[in-house]
Write a structure and sequence with these properties.
heterotrimer; A mainly alpha (about 300); B alpha+beta (about 375); C mainly alpha (about 270); A: mainly alpha; 2 domains; two-stranded antiparallel sheet; two-stranded antiparallel ribbon; 4 strands; B: alpha+beta; OB fold (Dihydrolipoamide Acetyltransferase, E2P); 6-stranded mixed beta sheet
Chain lengths: ~300, ~375, ~270
């Protein structure tokens, strides 16, 4: 007759196995078509590039990684700065930072207004903000392109109003990409800030005014601290996709205002430098993971510190 | 440490708990929920597990139901060990504290659920559901959604649902705690009636000692995972086994004393100030040991003024409680003492600051170990 | 003398204006884009009249038909597979004391949310290119499996949320009333979980429909979905029938998200 402990252990083990079995299909699919291939990319970044794309199998080299910043002079084989690549990397970082700042500057007041409406209309507002987010990224980017191209609505209106004679070149600039990124990722900033501000008790704000605080002071000392976790969360949520953007810079930047995503694509297309492309991808992945760790750390700290208030 | 004041034989028992233990969390650092608990519950009995929060009564109930498994020990149902069976293999049903009615099913579907899971024929299920709804007087709510009925009605549906499959034992986990006072009192009588009618063994969990005393055939008082005493309400109230039970059930005063012999050679308790009191079970205690005397407020009588041979105290508060008065006094050694007595001829007699003499009904006090 | 508005504790100066402009700016591009599909002028240089003819033309266009059909096929397959797998995984990873490997599972399941699409696209390109060489297979299988993979977390999260919000006692009560594991799941868990499953399906469906990057990288020739088809058209001049097709898809996405929202609202 098995003992109580033995039966208990058997039950625990069976339960454990059942849970793994149930999650197996999902895990296997993801391992096969998402996680696993990443390992191949990592491997490829250390291989020698092939003559017609692909790699020379099992010939190892660090050229892929060096190409991130350096380039080999074809004549005397010295390493010089790969200014084109560096420029692209710099543009990506700059644009994603600016996108984060712009979406925050615009998203904070928007989230605040939504959070201070009545409960009924709040849900409608949130719904309205969410809808564009779930529509096709490509369509949204095309929509911006339509708006700012030379015969687009903006130029048309400006000419009609007589403010300009010839159309402004808005498309295919860094500004266009920035506008596109801001437009596309705006809802991602609003929602977390809203989530933080929703918990703001208006009575705290009233208390602030009661104690002689000016509007600016109330904003700075009462409202902003409450919104801070949401601001940080939103910033990470916007920064991560921005720095990896591909469609938006391609549609709005043409071939000239490339970002990391486009550079990576190029290596697997015309440039046929798979190791370099792989190295770029891994580098991008590292940056994103670091940003994510910051987010996770903030999220767990944020929920703990609120109890103290 | 059990003080079973009944003499239940093993053969009589419907449910027999033997040396049940359970620790949550890692051994050594975890919480001990049950510590070697043993109880014997008879067939057709209304048995209550009573104790404060965290005493292990709910854990014990869940183990009988099968939602938790013990680390050690046995649970015998009519002699068969069921401790390791999953809940759906035990002929035991539970009435949950939150009722746990299935919100997507109607009242009738809820009540018939257990029978449906046992694959009974539809006609039999329908007939039984009708019977059960009649038993709890909710026939007209048959097709209602459970979210549309009141709390008291939900409670009765939960009861009907648990009784429908004719279990051998019915477990009730603080089922009345969400009801208001009046409804609670009504349901207490209802439950008693139902237990008598159906003849099923009821095991009832509560932290309300008044409720336990009202409804139970026998009570097990628990604290910190241990069973402290098992007995009828009268036994638990009148002869508490230890200090915890005495303090948890009803109200009492604890007075330190010393065992001595009085002039007639009888074993008595000597309190501070020389006053001696007789107590029950006097023969079992040795001379000159110190102990605690448990004196219920209704077994004491206060009169104004100071007299010899009584406990001397000063009145702090006088409360009129309808059926009498309640005096909160302070003894000479600084400890408090409460007296409860009828109000016949003492109107206006007691005032704050007044010295009083308190006499104890002889033999009514209970001696407890330190 | 102008009457001043009473001091509002709630409102900060300028905030409402900014919010209003943002909402306007959020919808202006989309509305303009959609309006081209109804504009009888084919050049998009001014409003000339309402028409539905572009939808008819789009409907007839072979390439658009093809691409749209393929998008729908992939979305249905991926959403179905992802939702089923996500439901199983959610049941396995929710409402349980932490056990070894739980966090790892959770991170793995949500991995597609964490990794930038371009990186996954590149990884799959390399991986599938190899397999294509070995097996000579270049059918839609790659698209199905890739879409299923990144749809899983989108189906998983709403199902998990719904599961966590469910009263655990209900399943305990069911097993108390003689329901074994499978019966409990079928009679209690699944009916109550159902709105979450639908929500997850809707989300996965929309995500698959909208995917551009991964699909573009791993598709073989002639396997365009509507988004990749549109991407290929960016150098061409304005094509209102493309706008019309896109508007149709947009309507589908909006419908799915609306259903999702209504389900969530009803739950609350």
């Amino acid at each position: 007759m098995p003992t109580v402990e033995q039966v208990g252990k058997l039950r625990v083990r069976r339960e454990f196995r059942r849970r793994w079995l149930l999650s197996a299909p999902a895990l296997l699919t993801i391992l096969l078509a998402a996680v696993g291939p990443l390992a191949i990319v990592f491997l490829f970044s250390f291989m020698e590039k092939g003559d017609y794309g692909d790699v020379k199998y099992w010939h190892f080299s660090t050229d892929g990684w060096l190409s991130l910043i350096f380039e080999r002079d074809p004549i005397d084989d010295t390493l010089g700065l790969a200014s084109a690549n560096v420029q692209i990397i710099w543009r990506s970082i700059k644009l994603s930072f600016l996108t984060t700042i712009f979406t925050a500057a615009l998203g904070f007041p928007t989230a605040y207004v939504i959070a201070t409406r009545s409960v009924r209309s709040r849900n409608t507002w949130l719904f309205l903000i969410t809808i564009p987010f779930w529509t096709n990224l490509l369509i949204r980017t095309f929509a911006i392109q339509d708006l700012i191209r030379n015969e687009g609505l903006i130029n048309l209106t400006l000419r009609k109003l007589g403010l300009i004679d010839a159309p402004l070149q808005l498309l295919f600039t860094d500004g266009a990409v920035l506008a596109g990124l801001t437009y596309v990722y705006f809802p991602l900033m609003v929602l977390p800030i809203y989530a933080s501000l929703e918990k703001l008790d208006m009575r705290l704000v009233e208390a602030g005014y009661d104690l002689y605080a000016s509007r600016l002071q109330v904003l700075r000392h009462i409202i902003l601290p409450h919104a801070a976790p949401g601001l940080i969360a939103g910033s990470i949520l916007v920064f991560i996709p921005s720095i990896g953007a591909y469609v938006t810079p391609r549609v709005l930047g043409g071939g000239k205002n490339m970002m990391l995503g486009n550079l990576i694509e190029q290596q697997f297309g015309q440039a046929r430098d798979w190791p370099f492309g792989s190295a770029l991808s891994i580098a991008l992945l590292v940056v994103v993971t670091l940003a994510l760790l910051v987010y996770v750390r903030n999220a767990s700290r944020g929920s703990g510190s609120h109890h103290g208030r | 440490m059990i003080a079973a004041s009944d003499g239940g034989r093993v053969g009589d028992s419907a449910v027999e708990i033997r040396a049940l233990s359970k620790t949550f969390g890692v051994h050594g650092t975890g919480v001990v929920a049950l510590d070697n608990a043993s109880i014997s519950i008879r067939a057709n009995e209304f048995f209550t597990l009573l104790g404060p929060s965290g005493c292990g009564k709910t854990t014990l109930l869940r183990m009988i139901a099968g939602f938790e498994y013990p680390d050690a020990g046995q649970i015998l149902l009519y002699g068969e060990d069921i401790a390791m069976l999953p809940p759906f293999k035990r002929p035991i049903n539970t009435v949950f504290q939150s009722y746990a009615l299935f919100p997507h099913k109607s009242v009738a579907e809820n009540v018939g659920f257990g029978l449906k899971m046992q694959h009974r024929p539809k006609a039999e299920i329908d007939a039984r559901v009708t019977d059960m709804l009649r038993l709890v007087r909710l026939e007209e709510l048959r097709d209602r959604r459970t979210s549309q009925i009141s709390g008291g009605q939900q409670q009765r549906v939960a009861l009907a649902r648990a009784l429908a499959p004719s279990p051998k034992v019915l477990l009730l986990d603080e089922p009345l705690s969400a009801l208001d006072y009046k409804l609670r009192k009504e349901m207490q009588i209802e439950l008693k009636r139902m237990q008598h009618e159906t003849g099923i063994t009821f095991i009832f969990v509560t932290h309300d000692q008044e409720e336990a005393l009202t409804m139970s055939d026998r009570i097990a008082v628990m604290d910190k995972g241990r069973v402290l005493q098992i007995g009828t309400p009268r036994e638990i109230y009148g002869r508490p086994a230890d200090r915890f039970v005495a303090g948890f059930i009803g109200e009492t005063n604890f007075v330190p004393c010393e065992i001595a012999r009085d002039g007639a050679g009888r074993v008595v308790a000597r309190l501070n100030g020389g006053f001696t009191v007789g107590f029950e079970d006097a023969a079992t205690f040795a001379d000159r040991t110190t102990a605690i005397l448990s004196i219920r407020p209704e077994h004491a009588r206060a009169v104004p003024g100071l007299q010899g041979g009584t406990l001397h105290a000063t009145v702090e508060t006088v409360i009129f409680i309808g059926t009498g008065i309640q005096l909160h006094t302070r003894l000479n050694d600084g400890s408090s003492f409460m007296v409860r007595q009828p109000d016949f001829d003492s109107e206006g007699q007691f005032a704050t600051g007044q010295p009083v003499s308190i006499a104890i009904n002889d033999g009514a006090a209970r001696l407890l170990r330190n | 003398m102008a009457v001043r508005a009473p001091f509002s504790v709630r409102n900060q100066p300028g905030f409402v204006a900014i919010a209003a402009i943002c909402m306007f700016a959020l919808y202006l591009p989309i509305c303009t884009y959609v309006s081209y599909a109804f504009n009888s002028s084919g050049t998009g240089n001014g409003w000339e009249g309402f028409t539905l003819k572009w939808f008819g033309i789009a409907w007839q266009n072979r390439e658009i038909q093809d691409a749209a059909w393929r998008s729908l096929q992939i979305a249905v397959v991926a959403a179905t597979a992802a939702t089923i797998m996500a439901t199983l995984a959610a049941v396995a990873t929710t409402r349980t004391a932490p056990y070894r490997g739980l966090t790892l599972k959770y991170v793995l399941i949500n991995q597609p949310l964490i990794v930038p699409e371009i990186v996954t696209a590149v990884a799959l390109l390399i991986f599938f290119a190899r397999i294509k060489v070995w097996t000579d297979y270049s059918g839609m299988g790659y698209l199905f499996i890739a879409h299923t993979a990144f749809c899983i977390p989108f189906a998983y999260l709403p199902i998990r949320a719904r599961l966590e919000g469910m009263d655990l006692t209900l399943e305990t009560a069911a097993s108390d009333l003689y329901a074994n594991g499978w019966q409990t799941f079928r009679e209690v868990t699944l009916p109550l979980l159902w709105p979450g499953i639908i929500a997850g399906y809707m989300l996965a469906f929309v995500i698959s429909l909208d995917d551009v990057v991964i699909t573009d990288f791993i598709k073989s020739g002639g396997q365009d979905t509507l988004p990749t088809f549109m991407l290929g058209q960016i150098r061409r001049s304005i094509s209102p029938e493309l706008n019309a097709a896109a508007t149709g898809f947009l309507a589908l996405s909006v419908l799915a998200v609306t259903v999702f929202y209504l389900i969530n609202r009803k739950r609350n």
